[in-house]
Amino acid sequence: xxxxxxxxxxxxxxxxxxxxxxxxxxxxxxxxxxxxxxxxxxxxxxxxxxxxxxxxxxxxxxxxxxxxxxxxxxxxxxxxxxxxxxxxxxxxxxxxxxxxxxxxxxxxxxxxxxxxxxxxxxxxxxxxxxxxxxxxxxxxxxxxxxxxxxxxxxxxxxxxxxxxxxxxxxxxxxxxxxxxxxxxxxxxxxxxxxxx
Length: 196
What we know:
By secondary structure, the protein is an all-alpha fold. The protein has a domain at 52-180. Helix content is 52%, strand content 0%. It contains 9 helices and no strands. The chain has helices at 3-12, 19-24, 27-31, 59-72, 87-96, 100-121, 130-136, 152-169, 172-180. α6 (100-121) packs across α8. The longest helix is centred in the middle third of the chain and has 22 residues, at 100-121. The chain is elongated.
């Protein structure tokens, strides 16, 4: 008999308490049971237990993505921003599971942002001020067209803006804030869960 068939047959056997066996137990063993309840453990949601570790991006790339996300989607009108919605961590997972071309677009774009910040301001993009970051993100001010931009950095910024926005608006934190604020939006309750 195969192991699977054996386990299935065990699962199919009903467990029935026999009243005679229970009645034959001495009363002393029943009174020896502790009267205290078992200690109750406080449970924490999986994603609230600690900070996730980067899986695809390097630490510098993830810091750059966090700063970019903070600028693209800040908290507004008591709604969470990209950082509160943990959009960069989700994108770390998403881009890590994406095509090679998309991975290259993100790593090249994040490294280009750091390179330009280093050349112009002598520090990584994550440490730039809002005014300095605004100068580096000037391609985002260009009008949208059907054709992707020729500049690789502008193409990355265009894609990252859309991805950060989608990850934020579809997060549990944004959906919960939207519901508690009395607003109703499409996709209510259809947020992403962290995957391990």
